[in-house]
Amino acid sequence: MAVGEALVHVRITVLQLCLGSLLFLSGWAQIGHSQHHGPPEVVTPLRITGTKRGMRPPDWLFYSLHFGGQRHIIHMKAKKLLVSKPFSVFTYTNQGALLEDHPFVQSDCYYHGYVEGDPESLVVLSTCLGGFQGMLEIHDTLYEIKPKRLSARFEHLVYKLHREKTQFPPMRCGLTEEEIGRQLKLQRRENSILRQSSYEGWWTHTRFLETVLVVDYERFLYKESNVSLVIEEVFFIVNLIHSFLSTLDIDLSLLGIEVWNEKNLVSVTNDISRLLDDFCSWKRASLESRIKHDLVHFLAKQDFDIHLGLAYVGSVCDPGSNCGVDCVLGDDLYSFSFIITHEMGHNLGMWHDEPECTCGHEFCIMYPEKSESIRFSNCSYASMWENFPFMYCMHNAPKQENIFRGTGCGNGVVEEGEECDCGSPILCTYHPCCSENCALKFGAECASGLCCEECLIQPPGTVCREKDSECDLPEWCNGTSPECPEDVYVQDGVPCMGGGYCHEKRCNARDEQCRQIFGKESRSAGESCYTKMNSRGDRFGNCGLSGDHYIMCNESDFLCGRVQCDNVREIPSLRGHTTVHWIDFNGVTCWGTDYHFGMTTPDIGDVKDGTECGSGQVCIHRKCVSMSFWASDCSPKTCDMKGICNNKHHCHCDPNWEPPNCMKEGYGGSVDSGPPPGKTVQEWRVRQKGPFYLFPFLVLFMSLLLLLVKMNKTPPKKKDKNVQPSPEKKQAGVQTLPVKEELGSQTSPVKEELGAQTSPEKKALGAQTSPEMEVLGAQTSPEKEALGDQTSPEIEQLGAETSPSPETKLNV
C-alpha cells in the first residue's frame, strides 16, 4: 500500500513528555557533546536570591557559576516553546498505518538569557532533565554545560568548545555558489513582484517560521527505538535553533514531528542531492495535506561524504521546495543545531558568506564549511532582506487560540486547585515557597505576587504599586491576598500639567511629547505644520492606516495626526526603523517621525489620545472630538472636594479622609486601591502578634493566682511544746523539738515526722554560724539540750536534706 493511501488512525493521548524517570535511567548519554577543548571544570550553580528576586514567579532567574578562573552571573528567563494546538507527533504501525498523537509538551524548561557584564553573550539552557543542559557564549568563547552524573550536590561539567576547523577535508554545505545563484534567479522569476504587492504588510519586522521536522528510521534505532527520546532530542535542538534565528527577529514555532519508526519512506543514500529531491516529493504527496507549514527538514543519520546538509534557496514559502536535508551522525546536538540553522538560512534566501562578510567572529553561521558560530553576518542580513518580499507566509503570526502551552501542575501558571506553581522540578527544588506538587511549603503563606515577600503576605497599607505619574494612583496590599489590587488611575479627562488631560495613566500634551522625542528644548510646532504634514496622507503625515494605504486627515483632524515639533537642537537616536524627517516652508521648520506598515514597536510620533485640539476638544483615535466623550457621574463634588475620581468612577480620597465619598475622617485611598498606611497597619500587627503580647500577662496572672492560693491555705494547729511524741516516733528515735513562740512556734507536719534532723553538712558548717544563728542558738530550750544527744543514726542520714540556714530550719 502506498504511503499516501495508508489508513490513518488518530490517537488523542496525554503522553507527557516530561521524560524525567525514563531519561534518568539511561543517564545523560543521550545528550551529545561538541568538540571539547581540554577536560571539563566541575561547577555548582548557586542561585542568587534576594528579598525581591526570590519572591518572583518563575520568570528571570539568576545563577552564579565559577569557571574559567572567574565568577559568571547568568540571567535567564523561561521561554515558552510555541507549538501548535494540538501538537502533532506522527508515527507508523508495523502494517504501515499512520498514527497521530497529541502529547502534552513540557515547555517551561527552556531558558534564554545572557551573562552579566557581557551584552553580546548568549545563554541557551534546558532544565527538563533536572539540571542545566545547554550552551553559553561568553566573550566570544563557547561553553557546554551539563549535569555531572550521580552527583548529589547539583554539580555540573563545563566544557570549552572548539571553533577551529579540525577535519580534512573540511565538512561543508552541499550547495555550490553556482547552484545558489541559479535557484535564486529561478525563485525570483517564479514569484515576481505580484506576490509582493498582493500582501499589504510585507514590511513586517517580526517574522514567524512554522516548522515540521522528520526523523529517519536509522536515527530512531540509534535512539534505542524510543519515540520519547527522539522527541526530547528534537526539542533540545529546536531550542538552540530558535536562539540563533531570534537574532534575525524570526520566531520559530514547531508544529509537529514525524518519526519513521518502521522504515524509511524514501531511499536514504549518500547522494544528498537526490535525497533532497525525493524527500521534497514525499512531503508534497504526504505531509502537505496533513499539517500546514512554512518549512520542513529531514534529519537523517546518514554519511554524505563531506556534505553536512542541503536545502533549496529562498524557498521558505514555496510548497514545492520549502524543505531541506540535514546530517545527524553521532551525539553532537550542538553541531546539529548549527547545521540545521545554516540550511534554514538557505531556505530564507541567504548566500554563503564571503571573505568580506563579518559578524564579529572569524566565521559566521553561513560560512560554507562547518563552523560553530551562533551569529549571522551582515551579508546574511542583506540577502534575507533582499528576498524578504517573497516570504509572504512568514508575516502571519500564529493565532493565539492555536498556541498550545499545556496545562497542569508544573507549567509555571497557577491554575484552579493549585496554591502555587514553581514550574519544572529543578526550579521547585530551589524555590523558597512552593513545592513540586504545586502546594505551598510549610510555613509559607504565598509564593508569588506583589504583596508576597519572603513567603509571607504583606500587611495592609504596604504599597505594592507606586504612583508613576500625576495621572496614576498608588495601590496598597490588603493584608489577606498576595496579589496587588487592580491597577487604577486618574479618571480620563482630568486636567494635568502643560495644558493636557489625563488619559489611561498618561498626561498627554504636545510640548511634552516633543520633548520626549527631540529633547528638552523642543516644543510643539505651529498649527501650519500640522496642516501641511497631516494633509499629505503618507508615512510622515496621516491620521492612521487603512489596509494598504495611509489615511489623509480631515481638516478638522489635522491636529490629531502625527505630532509636529519645532526648536529641535539635535537629532535623536531612536529604536527600530523609525525615521526622523524635517521640512522647511515659508520660513517654518517642522520636525516629525514616520511609522510604516508592519512596524511592531510602539509609534512614538502619533498624537496621543487625550491631547487638546481646540477649546473643549481632545484627540481620540485620530479624531478631534468634544470632551463630552468623557462624561462621568463622578466629579470632585462627588468626592466632597477632598479627592479625585479614578477610572472606575470612584472617589480616591485625599489623606485623612475616608472612601467612598471622602466625608468622614480616615486614611485616604479608594474602595479599589486597598487600605493606605495608617491605623490599619498597627491594627494588623496587633491582630497578627496579639497572642504573643498576651503571653507574659497570662504567665503573671497564673503566678499571682498560685500565690493567692498558697497564702489562703489553712495553717496547721499549734502544737503544745509539752506534748510528748507518739509511740511510733519514739520507736524511730525521733524527738519533737519545742520552739519559742517569739520565733514562730508553729511546728509543721513535716517536722513532726522528721524531728530535729542534724545533717552531716550542718555539722561541717557549724563553725560558720552567723551571729544571727548564735542569737538563735541562745534561745534553744532546755528540753532540746536534754534531748540533743538522743539523735539516732537514721535521723542523721535523713538530716542531709535539711538546709544549713537556721531560718529555714525554724520555719519548716
From TrEMBL:
<dbReference type="GO" id="GO:0006508">
    <property type="term" value="P:proteolysis"/>
</dbReference>
<feature type="compositionally biased region" description="Basic and acidic residues">
    <location>
        <begin position="750"/>
        <end position="764"/>
    </location>
</feature>
<feature type="binding site">
    <location>
        <position position="342"/>
    </location>
    <ligand>
        <name>Zn(2+)</name>
    </ligand>
</feature>
<feature type="binding site">
    <location>
        <position position="346"/>
    </location>
    <ligand>
        <name>Zn(2+)</name>
    </ligand>
</feature>
<dbReference type="InterPro" id="IPR018358">
    <property type="entry name" value="Disintegrin_CS"/>
</dbReference>
<keyword id="KW-0862">Zinc</keyword>
<feature type="domain" description="Peptidase M12B">
    <location>
        <begin position="207"/>
        <end position="381"/>
    </location>
</feature>
<feature type="active site">
    <location>
        <position position="343"/>
    </location>
</feature>
<dbReference type="GO" id="GO:0004222">
    <property type="term" value="F:metalloendopeptidase activity"/>
</dbReference>
<dbReference type="InterPro" id="IPR006586">
    <property type="entry name" value="ADAM_Cys-rich"/>
</dbReference>
<dbReference type="Pfam" id="PF01562">
    <property type="entry name" value="Pep_M12B_propep"/>
</dbReference>
<feature type="domain" description="Disintegrin">
    <location>
        <begin position="406"/>
        <end position="492"/>
    </location>
</feature>
<feature type="binding site">
    <location>
        <position position="352"/>
    </location>
    <ligand>
        <name>Zn(2+)</name>
    </ligand>
</feature>
<dbReference type="InterPro" id="IPR024079">
    <property type="entry name" value="MetalloPept_cat_dom_sf"/>
</dbReference>
<feature type="transmembrane region" description="Helical">
    <location>
        <begin position="692"/>
        <end position="709"/>
    </location>
</feature>
<feature type="disulfide bond">
    <location>
        <begin position="464"/>
        <end position="484"/>
    </location>
</feature>
<dbReference type="InterPro" id="IPR001590">
    <property type="entry name" value="Peptidase_M12B"/>
</dbReference>
<dbReference type="Pfam" id="PF08516">
    <property type="entry name" value="ADAM_CR"/>
</dbReference>
<feature type="disulfide bond">
    <location>
        <begin position="359"/>
        <end position="364"/>
    </location>
</feature>
<keyword id="KW-0812">Transmembrane</keyword>
<dbReference type="Pfam" id="PF00200">
    <property type="entry name" value="Disintegrin"/>
</dbReference>
<feature type="region of interest" description="Disordered">
    <location>
        <begin position="715"/>
        <end position="812"/>
    </location>
</feature>
<keyword id="KW-1133">Transmembrane helix</keyword>
<feature type="compositionally biased region" description="Polar residues">
    <location>
        <begin position="789"/>
        <end position="812"/>
    </location>
</feature>
<protein>
    <submittedName>
        <fullName>Disintegrin and metalloproteinase domain-containing protein 25</fullName>
    </submittedName>
</protein>
<dbReference type="GO" id="GO:1990913">
    <property type="term" value="C:sperm head plasma membrane"/>
</dbReference>
<dbReference type="InterPro" id="IPR036436">
    <property type="entry name" value="Disintegrin_dom_sf"/>
</dbReference>
<dbReference type="GO" id="GO:0046872">
    <property type="term" value="F:metal ion binding"/>
</dbReference>
<dbReference type="InterPro" id="IPR001762">
    <property type="entry name" value="Disintegrin_dom"/>
</dbReference>
<keyword id="KW-1015">Disulfide bond</keyword>
<keyword id="KW-0472">Membrane</keyword>
<dbReference type="GO" id="GO:0009897">
    <property type="term" value="C:external side of plasma membrane"/>
</dbReference>
<dbReference type="GO" id="GO:0008584">
    <property type="term" value="P:male gonad development"/>
</dbReference>
<dbReference type="Pfam" id="PF01421">
    <property type="entry name" value="Reprolysin"/>
</dbReference>
<dbReference type="InterPro" id="IPR034027">
    <property type="entry name" value="Reprolysin_adamalysin"/>
</dbReference>
<dbReference type="InterPro" id="IPR002870">
    <property type="entry name" value="Peptidase_M12B_N"/>
</dbReference>
<keyword id="KW-0479">Metal-binding</keyword>
